[in-house]
Write a structure and sequence with these properties.
Layout: H1 10-17, H2 47-51, H3 69-72, E1 80-86, E2 89-94, E3 97-101, E4 135-137, H4 148-155
Length: 162
């Protein structure tokens, strides 16, 4: 399944192994864990953590949606504009240069169409309604930041990915 990626090899694997954060089988944070956060060596929550009531993770009411297209039709007054489109997806406009971050238009943050966390609200615009962008930034390869069907659709635009 392409959305699972592939194992690193060759030059990429050597770069990974050369990182001071490489720990033989993965990367480790060199900074100490902040007080109150779980020890990185603890793989699962404790039984008491699993049984403890938690606040709901779903909004109690629909999130407000605003169509950003009217604003996009005119230049940003200050030269800088950030439009949050949902979760990790932001359109940054810097003196007319447009940067799209972590484009996720899919209904779920998952490699599977029918499983995985669903988005709380639809995207405020369809992918085809987006303005032309100059570059697409992918911050990291988690499913809530890297949506394979969206990436495939954007690939046709020939916009560079970084």
């Amino acid at each position: 399944m392409k959305s699972f990626g592939q194992r690193a090899s060759g030059e990429r694997l050597e770069r990974m192994r050369g990182s001071p954060r490489w720990a033989g089988n993965g990367f480790r944070n060199l900074a100490p864990i902040a007080a109150g956060l779980r020890d990185a060596g603890t793989p699962m929550p404790s039984i008491s953590e699993m049984l403890r009531p938690r606040p709901p993770r779903v909004p109690g009411a629909p999130l407000p949606l605003t169509d950003p297209r009217p604003a996009w039709a005119r230049p940003a007054q200050s030269g800088l504009r950030a439009t949050w489109l949902g979760h990790s997806t932001v359109l940054l406009e810097i003196d007319g240069f447009k940067v799209l971050t972590d484009p996720v238009w899919g209904p779920r943050a998952s490699p599977f169409a029918l499983m995985g966390p669903k988005r709380f609200a639809p995207m405020p615009v369809r992918l085809r309604e987006m303005p032309e962008v100059d570059v697409i930034v992918i911050s990291h390869d988690h499913y809530d930041h890297l949506d394979f069907p969206t990436i495939r659709a954007l690939r046709a635009s020939r916009t560079p990915f970084v």
